[in-house]
Each structure stands twice: as structure tokens, then as C-alpha cells.
User: Fold this.
Amino acid sequence: MPPSANVGRAPGLPDGGWGWAVVFGAFVSIGFAYAFPKGVAIFFKEIQDFFGTSYSEIAWVSSIMLATTYGAGPISSILVNRYGSRPVVIFGGLLCGIGMVSAAFCTSILQLYICVGFITGFGLALNLQPSVIIIGKYFLKRRPIANGLAMAGSPVMLCTLAPLNQFLFDNFGWRGSFLILGAILLNCCVAGALFRPIGAARASVKTQATEEGKDALKEEVTKDAMEMSSPTDVPMETKMEEEEGKDCCEKINQYLDFSLFKHRGFLIYLIGNVLMFLGFFAPIVFLAPYAKHIGIDEYSAAFLLSILAIVDMIARPTTGIIANSKWVRPRIQYFFSFSIAFNGACHLLCPLASGYTGLVVYSVFFGLAFGMVCAMLFETLMDLVGAARFTSAVGLVTIAECCTILLGPPIGGTLIDTFGDYKYMFIKCGAVMVLAGTFLFIMNYYNYRMLAKEEKERKAKEEDPKSVRTENEGRNNWNKETAQDGPELEPLREEQEGLKKEVNGTN
Amino acid sequence: MPAAFSGKRLGLLLLLCLSLSGGSPADPTMTPQDASQSQANSLTKMQAGLNGESSALLGPDLTTQEFKQAIKANVSSVTFVEYEVLIPGVSGTSIEKNITLDSATGIELSCRLDSKYSYLKNLQMTWKRGNETIEHINKTENSWGIQLKILDNSKLGSYSCTLKGEEEISAIFHLQVPKIEGKEKPIVSYEGDTAVMICKSFGYTPIAWTWYRTNGSEQIAINDSLLADKYVINSISANVTHLKILKLTGEDDGVYWCEAAFELGKSKGRLKLKVLSFMVPLKPFLAIVAEVVILVTIIFLYEMYSKKKCAEDEKEFDQVEQL
Assistant:
């Protein structure tokens, strides 16, 4: 029987083709999710005058939006686990649109909090998570590039939204602008439409269906459904029996995988990132005020941010390409820790920068470091946790990060107000990030070693001649690989081995 | 809260050398804070650096340097604020200085000639306001000054000192009330909505604010007590005034003026209000929604088409297999 064309590739993961359309959709979606809260700040002055509120009351709108976008992560993950990426993103886009359109008719600041803050924020959360998740479903070998390209959406959208918002505001006032922005946000639905559903094992269904029988097909389908639950080493038959006797823990884990908290790599990532975000966003928030503080005029200060955005735009796909190279990919966690520490070092050196030229150099390096970290932010999590559990992982990580992201700028602001000097804020951010980078570096070194050890043990078990070589065993191995949490090189090699076993099994 | 002689005021002493490039008269307005201690004419002039600068004063370009020294003024006597201008040796250039005053003050204006030109003989300095010549010029070694008591609006204006020697060189002082900034870009609002217009005065506190709207070529004062359900005028603080226009209609579109009354006169700021109907943003909105719907439809149709094609290929494959 001629093997189907799919057998030659890593099963289920196109690594191209429609995947690039998905990357484009993720680009748009992620871009809106990250850039919109910042872009909407242009309207704040006018809204503040209109409602007669203070600046801090208006700033809450942005904070609520950001908090909801990150805090609704788990809900987003649950929905994606249940319904897949596409419906969630389309619904998220609709929600954003509705939020902004209703904001155009607001008559009080409280209504703005609800419409712009909660509803639009929630819609953006429903955009962000699924976009990141679906990249993991479409790419394996070229995943870092795909991630880097998709994350580049954020600076590009920011650069587009800022002048667009200004133009809309000059011509339509803030109400008309919100109305039109609602329509623009509906484009997230277009991005969602591009997210064609794909299951990790679905392509293998095609290859196997013609070769095996109908029960084999059934096993595959149930395997898909079970993929979300914690991977075990139990062979196929017992897994099917257990399906009926699932306890409530496993049921919850089906929606949101809390067993991730036992996962070593996940915990390392979580702690490191939560620490890092404490100092991640504050420098951007305070760069322009710092520039004005040392005497630079307003337009040049704004230009610094533009430089940052442009360098960021270039750095993200470039980092993706570098991270995909065969030297870096197996050690991508080290690269990530390095870029965090590099970021921290930039902040520590910033107070030494004097004058405009110094700040420009700082902006360039900061943009570079910022882009590097952002490009690999989700890639490293996917690498540690595996594509199957990534859905839940990203939800849990974002809600944990939510607290520190919101705390970062206010702490920086307090430091500035207390000492009257910006340099303590930079030192704090730099120190926190260098600490996070070092922590991640050391812990990942430990993690890699443990994984190598576990891999050796597993291989020793496999070579055991007592185990029966059946179709199921081969497929079991292959499924273990897709659900495996470990460095990417291993699954790639394993998949090839698994394929060999399948081909051997059918002959 | 009118600024008056009463109360303590911070004193500043200003010594100015003007900088000109291409003869532009755009100078930062000076703040007339007082004062000299004790008698009016005991003014300490700060000369530091000036002589060092004079060597650079060969062309029409001068560099501006401000020296401020804050002295607490004991305001029992009339305090004079001194404004001085250094005259370049080259004619043809006119130096201008803007001085902002919001309340009644005493002013001494003086034009000083650089010491290196003191060799010139037969120098005659005249002070003029318009065509009217001012007597009582205080002459010191190199400078000619006049003392003015600015008590009301009529005393404001442009005062010039002209040096008649071999060439004629002049400098002009513009005495004016503080400028009020309006908004350059129009405020956009919608029919049935509320518009809030804000005017601020920077650094000076006006006595009163008045709002006008332009009807054709006239300016009509807005009386908020008369039309209380249409206009609401608020002052959050003395430096800021708010005009709220409720239930906007197309007729409210146009130019508005906020006028600040100072002791020495009035000053206006200009704001423009644009009232749009809701159809205006609705058109781009509907256009974008239509674009989204079309794109989503195309994407789904393409997907169904390619699925069908895949299914047909599979069917063929199955049939081939069965054969």
C-alpha cells in the first residue's frame, strides 16, 4: 500500500502552508491585544476635560483594560480547550467591537470603565491567548520564526494605531473615534476566521485510516479528546477504560490543566517571568517623562519611543530566526535568560546615559532587548510544556503575570516620587530583570540536566525486549512524544523514530 | 484674585541682553516680578559675563542671558521693575522685547550702549511712545532710561528708544497684557451631545472671565444665567474657566472667545467648535464593518472550497485503492 504523503512529515504540523496565513492572523490579533491599550491613551486628555475628572481616574481605564486582558487568561484558555481557537477569537473580536461602540455613547466615566476597560479588555484577552496557542498547533520546526513574526504585530500595530488615533481624533472627536475603532477591532474576527482548526493527531487519522481499521480510528479520536488531560505512561487500553472512571480532578484538568503546577519547567518559567514582569514595562512608561525631565523637548522624547518601536519591530522576527537555528533551538531557554539579563543590563546602564545621544543609544538597545524577550516569551513556554498543555499553561501564566505587570509601573512611579530621581527606578528594573535572567539560566540548566536524565531512563525502558511491538505501542510512543514536555530536539527525533515504528508495524 | 501691591512678593532682578537672529522679534515674555529693596533706584546690576560677551557682539546677533535674583520685597515704597536692553553697534537691526503685565506696576525701561562704543560722541537718545516723545530720561554712564507707572490700559503699548548718532539704532519694548491660549485644533462634538471648552491663563490670575460667541461678524457675550439649560460657565480655579454647552445643534458650530480681564486690560483666546451629525463617523464605520464581513465570507468560502477539493481527492484515492 502506498503510504500517504503525510507520513514523510511530522504528522499534524504543517510548519508552513496555511500556517503562514495563521501567522498573519495572529500578527493582527496579537498586535491589537498589546497595542490597543497604549494607543487609546491619546484620547484621555480630551475625555478628562469632557467628564471633568482627574488624570488618575482616566488612567484607570487603561489599567482596567490591561488587567482584564491578562487576568482573563484562564477563561480564555478554558474556552480554547473546549471550543478551539477560531470561535473564541471571533467572539473576542465581536466583543471588542461591541465594547468600543458602546463606549462611544458613554455618559459617565464609570460606563467608560465598563465598556472600554472590561468588555474591550475581555475581548482582547480572548484574542491574545488563542492566537498564541494556534501557532503551536501549526508549527513545530519553524515555531520560533512563527512566534517571532506573530509577536512583531505588537510594535507594528502600535506604530500604526498612534497616528491613526490622532487622525481620527482630530476629525471625529473622541466619540466618533471610539465608534470607528470599534469597527477596526472587528478585524480581529477576520484574523480569527483564518485560524482554521487543526488537531495534532488529525492528519495521522488520515494516514492511518486507510491502513488500519475503524477501531484504530476510534482510538485516535478518543486520544485527541484525552490529550488535554495529564499525560501518563499508561498504555492505550487502560486509558480507554479509565475514561469512564475519571474523577473530578481530571475533569477540571480537561478544562484547565492545574497539574501543570507539578511540572518543573512550568514552575521555573512561572517564577522567572513573574519576577521579570516587575521591571519589564516600567521603563517604557517612564522613558518619555525621563527624557523631558533631563531637558529634552516633547517631540524628541516621543521620537525615542518611535525608535524603540522600530528597533523592536525588526528585532522580533530576527530573534525568531536566530532562535530557530540549530545552534540555538536546543538551548533556547538559555537564549531567553540571556535576553532578559541583557534587558536588565540596559536599564542598569541607562542612568549613565547623558544627553539625547545617550538616550537614543539606550532606546536602540532597549528596543532590541525588548523585542528579543517578547519574541521568545511564548516560544519558551511552548518549548517547556509542549503544544498540548500550552493552552492551559498560557492561561495560568498570564493571570500570574497580571499582578506584577500592574504593579511594575506604579512601584516605579513611587520610587520616582520618593527620591525625585529616575535613576532608582531604572536600577530597580534592571536589578529585577538581571535577577530573573540569572534565576532562569540556572534553573533551566538544572532542568535540562534532569530532562536528559529522564530521557535516558525512558530509553532504557523502551529497549526492554519484553514490551510487545504492536501498532498501539508505536502510536503510544508517538502520542507520548506529542504530549511530552522537553527540549524540542528530543520530540523531533522521537517523532521520526515513532514514524519508523508505525511504518514497520503496518508492513 | 487681583495681583496688587499688597502682600509680600518675590523679587526678581532682570538684566537682559537680547539675542537676534535675522532680526526676529520673538522673545520669551518676561515676568515682571519685583523688586529692588529700599529705594526705587538702587538697582544692582549684574554684569557678570556681560563684558566677556561684548566681544561677540559684533554683528546683529546677541545672546540672551537672564540673571534672576530673588529678593523678598518690602512693598512700602513703589517698586520698579527694570528692563534693560543692550544696543548693538550696528544699525538697521531693531531689537524688540515683549513685557507682560497683568496688574499695575512701576517699570523702568532702559537702553544701554555697549561700553566699547562709548567713544562715540554726540549721542542722543530719544524715548518715544508712538509719536509722543517722553521727557525725563534718566541718563547714566552708558544707558538711558525712563520710569513709567503703568496704572491702566492706556499706558500699555510700545515704547521705543532711538539712538541718534552717526547711525540710528532703536529698540522697542512692547508692554502688553498676558496672552490667553485657546485651542488651535477645533473641538469636535456631536448633535445632542455636550461640549466642554476650557481656557487657561498661565502664570497670571485674571480678575474675571467672559465668554463670547461669534455670530456673523459680531461677538455676543454668553450669559449663562439667562440660558441656564444651554450654557454653564464654571471656574475650577481662578486661572481656568470652563464653558459647557449642552444640547448641541448645528447652529452652535463656530468660533468662541474666552476673554480674561486683568487690571490692565483684557485678553482673548480663540476656540473653534465643530458640531457634526452622527452620520459623519457612521459612514467609515459601516464601510469597515462591510469590509470585515466580506473578508470573513471570502475566507470561509475558500476554506469550504479547499475542503471539498480535499474530500474529492480522497474519494478518488479511495476509489483507486478499491480497484
Notes: The interface with chain B takes residues 1, 49-50, 52, 170-173, 175-177, 179-180, 182-184, 186-187, 189-190, 193-194, 196, 206, 210 of chain A (CB under 8 Å). Residues 1-10, 200-245, 479-507 of chain A have pLDDT under 50 and may be disordered. The first helix of chain A runs from residue 18 to 39. The radius of gyration of chain A is 24 Å.
